[in-house]
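Z., the sequence and structure:
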Amino acid sequence: MGRKRMANRDLPPRCYLRHGSYYFVTMAGKWHNLGRERRAALLCYADKVTLPQALTLNRYMDRYMAKIAPQKAPRTQKDNAIEIEKLRAYFGHMLPEDVLATDIYSYMDARGAPIRANREIALFSHLYRYLIRWGVVQSNPCREVARNKESPRTRYVTDAEFWAVHDLAPPVVGLVMRLAAITGLRIGTILTLRRDQIADEGLRIPAVKRGKALLILWSADLRAVIGELKRLRDVAGLHLVCRRDGKPYTGNGFQTLWKRVIGQALAQGKLTERFTLHDLRAKAGSETDDDELLGHQDVRVLRRHYQRAPRRVRPNEVKR
């Protein structure tokens, strides 16, 4: 075992600062000049030696995905698994304390997908919050970074478009469309609805993300849709929306059905612009008088992202 460092204890193994320059020393005792600038020197060092796993961001990304990500919603976990690999490929070899705001901007510029880059840097920032908590670093470089500009989606599904697609769709897809437009529930929530969530007063919806648990009170339309869903599959199963064998749809499986229906509507000229299942949540948010229907605690989120219908205004009168 080598002697303990007396100075420059923040440097990785076999890396030394001498006379203003950084050096890497091989096991054979040969000194390689890495330059005077710390960051460039450490990047050069990383090219010359495989850093111990415990020192690099790779190690902490693994810890985050094992300990923190499982606490999130299933869809978020799935997204994070993809996002962390993008971040790993760019930052994984680096030491946590060496990442600068300029590195993050370089990543965002190279990414080529501005919105996805925002989501990935949001995850990176959350990782750094835990690095601070774990005593690895003192600050979060992501706080100094301005995210790429995002414009809220504006696609509003008219009643004519809704029914044109609904009438082409298989019964299960049509019922999901109606349930989404009536309740404003996310498609992921609809696909996981269980029969035991049906209560005397209405439909019980557990809290999702940072929202609140909801009890959606019965209306004639909601009763009709739930009744049709229960009758659609004559199988014993836990889920309201299920396949013929009683098993629930996966998100990807249902999206395949949806894309097929939208493709038919476009091909037959019944639709001129495609819309997504998530746009039906915005349709519900646009047409409700209840700001709590979508479960958001912040009304500003509802108004910015979900209220897309044209505002109805009265014209002026021109008086003589």
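The two ends are 98 Å apart (CA to CA). The chain has three domains: 15-49, 55-144, 159-305.

Let me know what you think.
H.
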